[in-house]
């Protein structure tokens, strides 16, 4: 499956990110490295976000990445 990926590094709880959509609807997923690897392996994974068709999409980090 085609997807875009950005490594945000280590971020603290409450940090906010804004995603600008251009031209189409998409699913925006915020996940840690372990969940992303599960996604790549086509295993079960969890993420924060959802399916969006309007910009901007604002997501907040739900926990510290330790």
From TrEMBL:
SUPFAM superfamilies, sorted: Atu1913-like
In which domain of life is the source organism classified? Answer: Bacteria
Looking at the record, the residues that make up the DUF1883 domain are 2-62
- Pfam families given in the database record: DUF1883
InterPro entries to which the protein is assigned, alphabetical = DUF1883 (IPR015073), DUF1883-like_sf (IPR036488)
Q: What protein am I looking at?
A: DUF1883 domain-containing protein
Q: Which organism is it from?
A: Nonomuraea endophytica
